[in-house]
Amino acid sequence: MTQNEVPIKVDKTNLKTLPKTTGAALYLLGNVGADYDLWLEVPGPAEDQFVINDGSEVDVKPGSHFYTAKKKLNPGNG
């Protein structure tokens, strides 16, 4: 870990990243598949935050928890 990196988790895997990164970098770091989205778990009653897979800046706090979810959930056919 470099001096500026912070510890995070993606799907319960311990990782390290810079506190200012991009959505695309987090997708790559977390090895997020093309058919999955990445979400930042927000404590408390607030809704979790969707992380866009692009060059948009993401501020990461030490101990942040991210998780993946299928892009399109299929509830079944009938």
Record the SSE blueprint.
Layout: E1 6-10, E2 13-17, E3 20-22, H1 23-29, E4 36-40, E5 49-51, E6 57-59, E7 64-70
Short summary:
The protein is mostly beta strands. The protein has 1 helix and 7 strands, in the order E-E-E-H-E-E-E-E.
Overview of this protein structure:
By secondary structure, the protein is mainly beta. The protein has a single domain (6-70), classed as Ubiquitin-like (UB roll), CATH 3.10.20. It is 9% helix and 40% strand. It contains 1 helix and 7 strands. It has one helix spanning 23-29, and strands at residues 6-10, 13-17, 20-22, 36-40, 49-51, 57-59, 64-70. A hairpin with an 8-residue loop joins β4 (36-40) and β5.
User: Beta-strand level of the residues, as a percent range?
Assistant: 35-45%
Tell me the radius of gyration.
13 Å
Q: Return the CATH topology.
A: Ubiquitin-like (UB roll)
Tell me the name of the CATH class.
Alpha Beta
Percent range of helical residues: under 10%
**Largest beta sheet, briefly?**
5 strands, mixed
Order of helices and strands: EEEHEEEE
